[in-house]
């Protein structure tokens, strides 16, 4: 996959449809991958994203301590890997190795991105005030990469218990909004 | 449409895939409808949802003052109405009347639900601490209704500027997770 840098002001269009994402973190040289659907945009530019990572998740400590992560957006081709990442904890396995995911170094953050995902958003944690109550981290997307050849990403949308909807047909209507 | 009450512990499965929703509010007898994609689950049970309503939105005052709203989930049949609701402000028009939406009284909250939407989630605002900084309201879903005949909802997922993805095929993989 050939990734090109993607304008930060357009990142909302990648996350607003609600795809499941793979959140990568790294602590003391140990990377981790977490499947995640509880995220939303907070602002267009700066591109701010809220996401829930519970203190029961192994990624929690890495996120809180390093204040860095990458939001990787998979397509349906990676459905098996997404579910596998959700089924085991990074406490016990290196999910990159176990599920054959290829790490590529982030340009801005010290966190591996997943090569097989069609989009990668390098993020810094900029607000942790909602962490204790809700597990909500506020992320600032500082660099974005998108596969130049994916014109229409068949993203995965989790409906619970391993059941997904795959992105279907497109619809375009005249709108005055972003 | 015949709606049945839906278990609150299953509500996450309706919002987790990231559909655009129509948020209804009512202030001093005047209802309003707002198209909304910036929402995420915060907890399974109680079913807590975070959503962004900016103080530039006409719904903002109603939400803050009445602390009630309904999250209505439309399918692709309502695409035109969704975009229309996003294109005008409730300051100037009654969107229910203008776009032919049928109000049904909420059972718990004093806010009309949209009959044409396949799911309706009656909500109370339970936390406004993130409103000033991010426009984030925390909602507690207190009653949920789903059309008994919609087996597979063709929800709309906004990608920006009136471009939507329509929910496509289903995929089910063995998962240990909710």
Topology of this protein?
2 copies of one chain form a homodimer.
Chain A: E1 3-5, H1 12-15, E2 21-27, E3 30-36, E4 39-43, E5 48-52, H2 59-66, E6 68-73, H3 79-87, H4 95-98, E7 103-105, E8 112-114, E9 119-127, H5 131-134, E10 136-147, E11 156-160, E12 163-172
Antiparallel strand pairs in A: 1-10, 2-3, 2-6, 4-5, 5-10, 6-9, 7-8, 9-10, 11-12
Give your account of this protein's structure:
Two copies of one chain form a homodimer. In chain A, the strands form three sheets. In chain A, strands 1, 2, 3, 4, 5, 6, 9 and 10 form an eight-stranded antiparallel sheet that branches. Chain A has a two-stranded antiparallel ribbon with strand order 7-8. Chain A has helices at residues 12-15, 59-66, 79-87, 95-98, 131-134; strands at 3-5, 21-27, 30-36, 39-43, 48-52, 68-73, 103-105, 112-114, 119-127, 136-147, 156-160, 163-172. The model of chain A has no long low-confidence stretch (mean pLDDT 96). In chain A, a hairpin with a 2-residue loop joins strand 2 (21-27) and strand 3. The longest helix of chain A is centred in the middle third of the chain and has 9 residues, at 79-87. The first copy, chain A, has a single domain, classed as Pnp Oxidase, Chain A. Helices cover 16% and strands 42% of the residues of chain A. Chain A is built from five helices and twelve strands. Chain A is α+β, with helices and mostly antiparallel strands and 178 residues long. At the A-B interface, strand 4, strand 5, helix 3, strand 11 and strand 12 of A face strand 4, strand 5, helix 3, strand 11 and strand 12 of B. Strand 12 (163-172) of chain A pairs antiparallel with strand 12 (163-172) of chain B.
